[in-house]
Amino acid sequence: MDPQQLRSALGRFATGVTIITCCDPQGGYVGLTANSFSSLSLDPPLVLWSLREHSPKLAAFLAAPSFAINVLTEDQVELSRRFARASEDHFAEGAWALGEQGAPVLAGCAAVFECQTLSQQPAGDHRLFIGRVLACAESSLPPLLFQAGHYRLLGEVL
For the chain, which domains are there? Predict the structure, then answer.
């Protein structure tokens, strides 16, 4: 399988855009932009996401007992870009607060899922995280989408 062809074909699937956050062992905020988020189960309430094995943020997520999935809105595209870059002070922008489960939560999102880390396991060149949703919130704001290497806006179906 040609990795570039596979990446291109997978990119045809539109996804939401999230900022996934946790606190490191010293209490510092850690976050990254990801579109690998998915629901897994309603009973019990489980979600999953994945992170590259070579990510410099992997150690923080492995050590964290909880994480938050912040589902971005169309108005948060610049914040998504900020968290995708390695050299930024990520949390200098946005209205951040420590959530009930101990991970940073962003105000004004389409949805937020606060999760207890249940498991993490290697899966190819990524690490798969499964979390139990302990709290969630939603808004009616339109979500930010990502497809074929570009940000997209949700359009109405006619």
Answer: 3-148 (2.30.110.10)
